[in-house]
């Protein structure tokens, strides 16, 4: 269900189950993890086939979870995949064209850059069916948009259009073609991209972060073309 295609410096990973709005089964989560791990390009663009980005977890798979232990394992599986996205050596761009719901939003939150087309929409819809976003959603959403907006989005389950998602900071741009954003990033130096991602994601003590920033600058400077 995950189609992979590398074009130059961009690896295109496509959720390819358009008849189910690209909803993810446990096997599809594993496929996504393998695809992200195996990506050999400075930039990965995550996108959906058809009219949706990703509807999140396949509800048939959720209904079939037999007990509490299985449900917790399923949540941890999604969290692991989201961490794989966040910790990838590539810069991962979410290109949301169409609906992102539940786990689809959570996987986008794990990406380094999120952009949407004018057709992009977002909702954390778990509360409506008695669940919550458990692929890191309750952790990453307030980190990205702030606690107040995260409470509003997750508790109401309302649908955000691309412009509101942009104003909220859920996406950084509204664009006609997310691939153009991926290619814009990929035009830069790969080593610098990796170092910038690592430094921006560093959540350690401020003094330690500044020390590592200086070390990263020195490492890059060693190969700097004068």
UniProtKB/TrEMBL annotation:
Any GO molecular function: catalytic activity
Pfam families in UniProt: ECH_1
Superkingdom, natural source: Archaea
InterPro entries (UniProt xref): ClpP/crotonase-like_dom_sf (IPR029045), Enoyl-CoA_hyd/isom_CS (IPR018376), Enoyl-CoA_hydra/iso (IPR001753)
PROSITE patterns, A to Z: ENOYL_COA_HYDRATASE (PS00166)
GO biological process assignments: fatty acid beta-oxidation
Record-linked PANTHER family: ENOYL-COA HYDRATASE, MITOCHONDRIAL, ENOYL-COA HYDRATASE-RELATED
Protein family: Belongs to the enoyl-CoA hydratase/isomerase family.
Protein name per UniProt: Enoyl-CoA hydratase
Organism in which the protein naturally occurs: Halosimplex carlsbadense 2-9-1
